[in-house]
Amino acid sequence: MNRNPVIPYVWIMVLGIGLMIGLGFKGLGDAEQLAKELEGGEEAEKTEEVADAGPEDIYSAKCLSCHGDQKQGGVGPALTNISLSEEEVADVLTNGRGTMPGGLVPPEQVDAMAKWLLGQE
């Protein structure tokens, strides 16, 4: 029996093309989801939830990963015994400092968050 040595390569090519087409359609779905997020779809809902939250909830959602669960510090500095004024803390929350980005706290919650942070021991 003579077997054609080209047949396996043709099958690999057909499977590869099928895989590329399938992943192309999957990628289109991901691009639509990304576009929705960039337009503010799901992100706007998350921002509204944080805007309605109290300082403790905002801390848990936005600050805990860098400043620790007990505000002991980690990647970011400790947030106990802060030596800044309330206005300076509000400025850091609004504009960021060092590696901390600004805008993590919704603008309408900045003053409450600053007071809450300064009230912690």
TrEMBL record:
Residues 50-121 form the Cytochrome c domain. The keyword Metal-binding applies. One of its GO terms (molecular function) is electron transfer activity. Heme c binds at C63, C66, H67, M100. Pfam families: Cytochrome_CBB3. One of its GO terms (cellular component) is membrane. The chain crosses the membrane at residues 6-25. It comes from the Bacteria. InterPro entries: Cyt_c-like_dom (IPR009056), Cyt_c-like_dom_sf (IPR036909), Cyt_c_BACSU-c550-type (IPR012218), Cytochro_C550_firm (IPR054780), Cytochrome_c550/c551-like (IPR051811). Coiled coil: none annotated. Keywords: Electron transport, Heme, Iron, Membrane, Metal-binding, Transmembrane, Transmembrane helix, Transport. Binds 1 heme c group covalently per subunit. This is Cytochrome c. It comes from Bacillus aquiflavi.
